[in-house]
Task: structure prediction
Amino acid sequence: MQPVATTFFFYLLSGLALLGGVLVITRRNAVHSALALILTLLALAGLYLMLYAPFVAGVQIILYAGGIMVLFLFVIMLVSIEQSQKQEQFNQFWLIGLIAAVALGGMFTGMYVKGAARLPQHALRLPEQSNTQQIALMLYGNYMFAFEIASLLLLVAIIGAVVMAKRKI
Amino acid sequence: MPDETKSPTPPSTGEPKGPAGSHTPPSVEPVPAQKPGDTAAVPNSAVPGAVPKASAHAPAAPAKPAPASQPWNSPLVDRLKRQYGSGLEAHTYLGQNYFVADFSLIPEALTVLRDQEQFDYCVDITAVHYPEREKQFDLIWILYSHPLNERIRVKACIADGASVPSVVSIWPTANWLEREVFDMFGIRFDGHPDLKRILLPDGWKGHPLRKDYGIIQQDNEWVQINLGIESGQ
Amino acid sequence: MLDYITSYLTSNVTPGQAGNVLWAFIYILLIFLGLSVAVIAMNWLERKVLAHMQVRLGPMRVGPHGLLQPIADAIKLLIKEDIMPAEADKVVFWAAPLLVVITAFTVFIVVPFGPTHAVTDMNIGILFMLGVSSLSVLGVVMAGWASNSHYPLMGALRSSAQMVSYEIAMGLAVVSAILMTSLGQASTGTLSMIGIVEAQQAQQTWFLFKFFPLGLIACFVFAVAMVAETNRAPFDLPEAESELTAGFHTEYSGFRWSLFFLAEYSAMIAVSSIAVTLWLGGWLRPFPTWLSGDTWDLVFSLFPGFTFLMLAAVTFFNTARMPRHPYFRIQTLGLAGFGALLAVIGIVLFIPPVRDRIQDIFWFSAKVAAFMYLYIWYRGTFPRYRFDQLMKVGWKVLLPIALGVLILTAVVGVF
Amino acid sequence: MPEATKYLSHLELGEPDKTFLDSNELIINMGPQHPATHGVLRVILKLDGEKVLGTECVIGYLHRGVEKIAENRTYTMFNPYVDRMDYVAAVSNGLGYCEAVEKLLSIQAPPRANYIRVILTELNRLASHMLWLGTHALDIGAITPLFYTFRDREEILKIFEKYCGARLTTHAFRIGGCQYETYEGFEKDVTNFLKFVAPKIDEYEELLTTNRIWVERTRKVGFISAQDCIALGVTGPVLRASGVKWDLRKAQPYANYSEFDFEIPTGQNGDTYDRYLVRMQEMRQSLRIIEQGVGKIPEGPIMAKVPKVIKPPVGEIYHSIEAPKGELGYFIVSDGSTQPYRLRVRPPSFVNLQALDMMVRGQLVADVIAVIGTLDIVLGEVDR
Result:
């Protein structure tokens, strides 16, 4: 099966992701920021699809866009918007932010200019059909221990949340 | 429309002091066989024959001969009389018993009625306005006793502007009932947790169930401000 | 060019897999139209069925037996004033119904109405459906928040909490069905919607009856969760009329409101399609093993035609019962015309090539329709759950059951 | 919502649960236009999330000054006005008023009138309870019972219509008896209705009584104890569901209820489910009363000897009856003229509504709806 208009979709999705990212940090209204973040996440899911990683794309949509962001919005909606709008957005962290941005930009530029030789000559072609199986094999085979540790960590977080939210259990 | 308000003739029963001397508390007199339940729960027995005609010591009855209030004798009355003496009169009219209590006895006698005489249910609190009297208002508490299945009324005369002790602490149900009396008559209740108008809007002027408040009278100012119309009529 | 068009007809894959953009587009159009008609029909049916459950007649005025009522309603909604509250967040208020309706329709590109009757077949089909339909929560939340009013906000909070909670039980039930695809003699673990049905075909059983009663329980969990997921009675708290007036779309009116309506019904059809695909054998006809053989195949392939003929007969019967009065002449004619249309469709469905390609769609739709009837039935029967009870049912009843079924399915499948 | 906050400022509201994650209090204004408040009742709710911390009822939107009107109408002229208070139980209102005036006049309705009165009043109680059931179930989300009860209530209204021409505000009774002689076939209609409706009540119960969701929604919701009921003056089915076996028809019989054999259903738990059961039982008891009455209507006049101009002697009277909602009392002060000097209505809905706050504190918003439904208030009577 031949992909259609690959370049076009790549730029479209990247552009959307970037637009969303910029909106996230420039919007004063927290709900608008969250919605822009969802746009970014969806665009990323599209990029994953283009990389022949449909499972990752699906998980991205279900977990991030459908699950986590809903909870984000849930919390933000209960916060008084008027108050947050009055607050200064670019506050005292602007210096740190600038340094981080410059450092990251430098890294990317360096990679682009000098790192081309270190990358493989053509993009890796993952077989589309076995993508899900490959992830499963990786997770439950090579990285079994890390996976279990991560799930334990999440369990701790759940228990902590329950304890904090409820006085009596 | 002041001409619409009636010129009220205060009913005989409303006179607390007038005939009081004539019928002294008959505590000595043996009054047998009048169980409380019977007196209160007269189902349809209030036929003219059953109630004796106006007795001698009744106040001047209206033109038509009619059953008039009579002294009411029962152990309950005896007990209360012993406690409060002449501040309390007991009457019965058409088989319904009521006390006319002196204003000063009000929260106390009612507390006694609830705590010692088991009148645990305050049915209603209401008032009647007699503009020509000195003490303009009759305030009426209708009480019922679940254990005794007996209903009585307690009546007290109060002057305009006087504040009455609230009975909310005795019967919580008095809360809204007193608010309604306040709303309609302008009688203030001391110790009421939240005395404000209940049926009429908060900013309304006047108390409609007073006799000097005409039937089509209204707070025009309120209507004009809040409803944006010239008049509600 | 003609070759490009006809080449697909002889292939036996979905247009998406064949890479045939034109046919994919035609399929998208067909699904969009079919879905709109289905929503309209569902609207009429719900009102009619519910009315007859409640000893009343339902719509009777617009068209014979109210057949044109949904269309009249649609026109009314389109020409109604579209109110946007002054204090609303304009952009979000505008985007919310769009998002809801887009997600509700997008999921249908992987719904397999037949072995080749889907826009495309993704190898993560079921994941895609769950993922995209979970996005509709966002629309609900946005609508509730953007209205800038208490009732919609509470409705949105309720509905997002509800949808997120029930997605978990729903997902676990789905996983147990997916697990079944990789078990048994034909070991083809797959997330593809078509693959799931084909697995049922290969295993000669609907997953509803596999590992009895595990499949049944999983289907039950899904069937409950899907009602909650679509905010329908008895889980219609976000729209609880008596409590929150209309929930998250209280401030919406006219066309925007109708988009929510459209989305709700197409979401109902979408989740029913998932249930049908996963447990009821998708497009497969009933009794594939019991009543097998060419004769039975023929008999079952005649079902669609007979169904339409029967509907036509019912219509003609009602035409005969119409009052004989000049006032009703147009209505009677209309009803007769409708019956004739049904009869023609029925006859067309008997033509062998049509019959062969249509019967998959028919069986799929019939199964979905059964679920839709359940939706109406629930609405007529049940009171509404309270919010804490709803959460209790979701987290303390359905989730453990779904987990247990998942583990048992794995255990039974391996040994 | 600063305006609503003003109303709540005085209430001793419970504090929200102090936990690590404190939530904000939310003040919600329910009504006066709200589908579940059964009219123009406005309830201001103070919420912690979905939990109710306190309520305040704002009433009076339907206030028409019935008591003031009474002072300016003759006794006969005022009679139709009482129908407009509890408009779903207009017959009961009329009975209470007529009996109060009769008592003041010291006359008694003839036996035939009394039988007709009891039958019509009990039919009215059925109609009122049916309306309650339908709307209550609708509030809790079951839409179907509403249509069933309306279908069956229709039959009662038809009987009323045949009897007096009106369906809702019947004005069926006159001071001293009944307005009209029963129509031809009245008894047959009532008997047929009894046969028709008994299985229908089973049908309602089938839909709800064992319905899991219904039970979960109503059990342990809106609890009120017998002591609190009495202290708050709550009467009617609400009181009986808390376990107090008190019904004015038995306690202080009026009309000729003492001649009828019926039970007073009571509950034990004082929750919404028990109130539902009590009212369902009351409907069956009403059927029993009607059944006994319909065969025994004696021949005779339907009016007592009443003077053309009703001029009760000077005096005052309090008479109360068991209306479908509770104790409906009339306190009349007469000054000997043709118009009441003062007429006070003791409205059961008004007094029962006062218990709302106590019943919903600590419960959820959805329970407020259930409790308003179970109190069975009629705003026409609350506001008068």
